[in-house]
UniProtKB/TrEMBL annotation:
Residue ranges occupied by any Methyltransferase type domain in the UniProt entry: 53-103
Protein name, UniProt field: Methyltransferase domain-containing protein
Annotated Gene3D superfamilies: Vaccinia Virus protein VP39
Cross-referenced InterPro entries: Methyltransf_11 (IPR013216), SAM-dependent_MTases_sf (IPR029063)
Keyword annotations: Methyltransferase, Transferase
A Pfam family that the UniProt record links to this protein: Methyltransf_11
Keyword Transcription: no
GO MF assignments: S-adenosylmethionine-dependent methyltransferase activity
Keyword Signal in record: no
Length: 245
């Protein structure tokens, strides 16, 4: 079941003694991962640059839909920007649950996918009713416009404090960040109109409030101040300061 939506992948509930698996570490593995697996070692089609593995990490070539590990071999698993690439997401998610007791999944939100689309992505994904909802991108995709990836993923991250605060206080704007324990609840290509509308329709006020509920000005101010403090800490101590909340 879902436990929470972490502020970022560096704010995960990972205990010091946990054995951590990362499926699809690619060019940016999580520094807390002990074992990193990747399906594609000779191609960068599914990532931005060459594979990277830290000195303290063990690497294994493996398919996330058929992992070579024992049941519950790991205390925690991380899957960052991988699920949307999978051929069989059901098999992938079931393998996460089989080999690990708990974990974290991060994927682009539907908003993020439309702002910076990737040809390698096969699925549009949202979290609704504490479940991951996956829709076939080929069936529901209608964006033939420009790709704003450099603007949102690189330029504003470098140049705009206001943008950083927005991303820190509204983490589900560009991504879905889903921490789970025991099981991952999901649906693939559901036929329910109340789910389909989020992939096909104009988002009215009621729909927007599902993901971005109204908060008081005081709450927004305090969240912004906290976010600004996080930005300063990252600037001085690097982005790999890990916390549990």
């Amino acid at each position: 079941m879902k436990t929470r939506n972490p502020r970022s992948r560096y704010h995960l509930d990972i205990k010091r003694n946990y054995k951590v698996l990362e499926v699809g570490g690619g060019h940016n593995p999580h520094p807390r991962s002990n074992m990193v697996v990747d399906k594609y070692i000779d191609s960068n089609y599914h990532r931005h640059s060459d594979l990277k593995v830290y000195k303290h990490q063990q690497f294994l070539e493996a398919d996330g839909e058929n992992l070579p590990f024992k049941d519950k071999e790991f205390d925690y698993s991380i899957s960052n920007q991988v699920l949307e690439h999978t051929t069989d997401p059901e098999a992938f998610l079931k393998e996460q649950m089989r080999v690990s007791k708990r974990g974290y999944i991060e994927v682009p939100s539907v908003i993020g996918e439309y702002l910076f689309p990737k040809k390698a992505h096969k699925w549009l994904i949202l979290e609704l009713d504490n479940k991951l909802i996956l829709m076939d991108k080929e069936k529901y995709w209608f964006n033939n416009g420009p790709d704003f990836g450099f603007l949102f993923l690189t330029w504003l991250q470098k140049t705009s404090i206001g943008y950083k605060i927005l991303m820190d206080t509204k983490p589900n704007f560009m991504t879905v960040r889903y921490e789970w324990n025991d099981t991952i609840e999901f649906e693939i290509n559901p036929q329910k109109d109340e789910y389909i509308k989020y992939f096909t329709s104009y988002w009215d006020e009621q729909m927007v409030k599902i993901f971005f509920p109204h908060k008081s000005n005081l709450h927004e101010f305090l969240e912004s101040v906290k976010s600004f403090g996080n930005i300063i800490r990252r600037a001085f101590y690097g982005k790999y300061f890990l916390t549990s909340n």
